[in-house]
Amino acid sequence: MRWYPLAREEARALLRSKGVWLLALALLLWTYRPSYTVWNELGPDMTIGFLQFAGGIVVPIAAVILGYRAIAGERASGSLKLLLGLPLTRGEILAGKVVGRLAGIAIPMVLALGIVTAAGVVQYGLFSPRRYLAVFAVTVLYLLALVSIVISVSAIVRRTTTAAAMLFIGFILLLDIGWQMFVPGIYSRLAGVPVNPYDPPAEGGLFLMDRLSPTGAYNVATNGILDAGNSAWHHPSAIWALQPSHSSNALAVGEAFDPGTAPLYLHEAGGVVILVAWIVVPLSIAYLRFDEGDLA
Amino acid sequence: MSPANGGDDGIERTKNGGTPDRTKNGGASDRTGNDGTLEHASDELVVETEGLTKRYGPDAAVEDLSLSVESGEIYGFLGPNGAGKSTTINLLMDYVRPTEGSIRVLGLDPRADVVDVHQRVGILPDGFSVYENRTARDHLRLVIDTKGTDDHPEALLERVGLAEAIDDDAGSYSRGMRQRLALAMALVGEPDLLILDEPFSGLDPHGVRTVREIAHEENERGATIFFSSHVLGQVELVCDRMGILHEGELVAEGTLEELRAEAPVTTELELVVDGDPERARRAASGVSGVVDASVAMAGAPSSDESSSVEAGPPSADVDGEPTPSATTATAPAADTVVVRLESTDRREDVIAAVEEAGVAIRRADLEEPSVESIFVAQTEEAADGGELR
């Protein structure tokens, strides 16, 4: 834990910035979204669902904005030289950065979600604490995945602008906001199977692809905990898609597969596995690259 | 967190503190606190590189560099901008990796033992920047807590003259204040080796003096100081030994005397004589190590002789002293003999020879080559008639 002081200073510096508190404010306004569809299905657990709204757009964008310069920017400015002179391995510098940024974003985020939770309890009654804690834990894991991706890109590229371009276009636009829209088209090209998202075929690969993005995986895992349906879309869409009277382009496993026929890899717990992969793979690549080259 | 600067080390320091040839034993032995190792440590090298080469594409920033910095010395690493000084320091600190060659710092491998090396090294890097939105206290706390030492930020900033700005945003600091902050960070944990990369840049004269004083204080405490500079005026005041780097290669190394002795720069000795100056000239030119000797005449004919002499090494005005040749050239010069020497240590022989010849010497002025003239001579010679001229 030699990197603890580094992580601590990173988190402190982040907590002193306006950005994380703007994020907290945005989360307050963005996540409190009661609806009749969800209330009918989940009852008081609707409040737990508010946590899930944090995933998707607001937190990924915040993670990118607050993190893309973490290493690339320090490299460009020269402050990285102050860190490199410390008695730390390069891996420890990377670890300190990831944990510090995680804490710096998580603290205001937890505060905001705490307020939303309190409001939800007052309005809609007490939810299942067990489910709440499970969704909370997966939310932290998701945030760690986002921070890992952002810091990894920042550690690999040489220029801040490259990091920004990769993260905003590659990650936010393609992998986060656009992913679920692109998947049916991409899958039908790759597999040669026509895909109508409003009436999806029972193709395991299609559903797997849909949940490979970090946010998709997060939604799968949290929907599983909430019992809101096996889907990579956020829970209102998943619930909507599974109602026979509605037609929706959200992919839910229950729409296409008869009960018990879905492949094992589409199990909700798989979402956690994918999230872990989004932590381990980028950080491993970043570590190998960061540990190898010249940094000054 | 390894308490590397713990009790044993402290005891060791107080025992040996202040002795100029205080030896630092490299490697893990320092940490064991084994006093027995101190005796053999005198030949211990704090920095040692062999055949060190760093290429960026086809260009070598550092070429076949073999450096050795001994324990307890203040080593000045000189060279023009772009000579490879910072690259060498980056290599010593494992910020960049060598293309070829080997490096030992405190007897350790800077890459494999990066934690141990950095634990015992304090560095003031070149081209760094401080963190905006963090105070000096924040900066120091990071280093103090990572190194696991019990330094006080206030005391460190007091030493570098930044105590009053301790809780100000470092982003608002001037260049000199940033330099002072980074110096304070380098002092955390009483490092065995203090690396200062261009420590004088951006500093006002007070700051320059602070750096010099701290370098001496740290050296007296027992630390080895390795600093790079292209500000040559400061170098003579600070270092015991220096190396001149040019285009990635070490072109000269030694104490100032050694460098003066071996530099391709002549020293001028002016003798004001009572008696026959021609006789004195003949006596002087017979001494080995004398390049030439001439009688400086008053009036027109002598002017080109004396000007040719002055055009030799860039003269003493860089040292801020009055140029003796200028004063004597205008004085009644009929009895002045100018002797150009290969090195300063020929001076006694020349004086002896002139006196032996029966000419009394009224005054002898030796104009020693400055570091700057040595530096210019070395780096131009290495360029070999190249683009520098």
Describe the structure.
The complex is a heterodimer of chains A (296) and B (389). Chain A is built from 16 helices and no strands. With 296 residues, chain A is an all-alpha fold. Chain A folds into two domains: 4-177, no CATH class; 181-271, no CATH class. The radius of gyration of chain A is 20 Å and the shape is globular. By secondary structure, chain B is of the alpha/beta class. Chain B folds into two domains: 7-260, 3-Layer(aba) Sandwich (Rossmann fold), CATH 3.40.50; 266-312 and 323-368, Alpha-Beta Plaits (2-Layer Sandwich), CATH 3.30.70. Helix content of chain B is 37%, strand content 23%. Chain B contains 15 helices and 14 strands. Chain B has helices at 7-16, 29-32, 85-92, 114-120, 136-147, 153-160, 175-187, 205-221, 232-238, 256-262, 277-285, 300-310, 324-330, 347-356, 371-383; strands at residues 45-56, 59-65, 68-70, 74-78, 100-105, 121-124, 193-197, 224-229, 241-246, 249-254, 267-274, 290-296, 336-341, 360-367. Chain B has a six-stranded mixed β-sheet with strand order 6-7-8-4-9-10, with helices on both faces. In chain B, strands 1, 2, 3 and 5 form a four-stranded antiparallel β-sheet that branches. The longest helix of chain B has 17 residues, at 205-221. Classes of the chains: A mainly alpha (296), B alpha/beta (389). Chain A binds chain B through residues 1-6, 8-9, 12-13, 16-17, 77-79, 81-82, 84-90, 292-296, and chain B through 1, 90, 93-97, 114-119, 121, 123, 125, 127-131, 133-134, 138-139, 141-143, 145-147, 182, 185-186.
